[in-house]
């Protein structure tokens, strides 16, 4: 069973992504051709993030019975906590650094993810950039 008090800060981090991304005109422009839903999996918790024309239009927290998404980013809670630090340690600054260390899995239809890699990297790291301001 998931401890809701332990999940709360990460849920708040994920809930902050739409405002942070949508306020960045350059980032929205970069993702103007992105129209997909992806999943962020943190331990046994799942969140769907909906993107339409570069804007984050929805963040839904699970559980889900049959979620519809193109790809997922799966990592343990400790990895996400470290990744979203304002100045994460070496090896936690990039999604592919986490994949290389086998701390994160990217699964599903990778075409939208890889075709818009810089966009998705900036979307996922938006809470970290906000914390450093």
Notes on the protein architecture:
The protein is an alpha+beta fold. The protein has a single domain, classed as SCP2 sterol-binding domain (Nonspecific Lipid-transfer Protein, Chain A, 2-Layer Sandwich). The chain is built from six helices and five strands, in the order ααββββααβαα. The chain has helices at residues 4-22, 25-30, 77-83, 95-100, 111-115, 117-132, and strands spanning 35-42, 45-52, 55-61, 71-75, 105-108. A five-stranded mixed sheet has the order 3-2-1-4-5. Strand 2 and strand 3 (55-61) form a beta hairpin. It is globular and about 30 Å long. It starts with a helix and ends with a helix. Mean pLDDT is 89; it is low at 1-6.
Topology:
Layout: H1 4-22, H2 25-30, E1 35-42, E2 45-52, E3 55-61, E4 71-75, H3 77-83, H4 95-100, E5 105-108, H5 111-115, H6 117-132
Parallel strand pairs: 1-4
Antiparallel strand pairs: 1-2, 2-3, 4-5
Helix pairs in contact: 1-6
**Whole-number total of structural domains:** 1
CATH homology group: SCP2 sterol-binding domain
Number of H/I helices? 6
Run of helices and strands: HHEEEEHHEHH
Give short descriptive properties of this protein.
disordered N terminus, 24% strand, five-stranded mixed sheet, 6 helices, alpha+beta, globular, 44% helix, Nonspecific Lipid-transfer Protein, Chain A, 5 strands, 133 residues
In short:
With 133 residues, the protein is of the alpha+beta class.
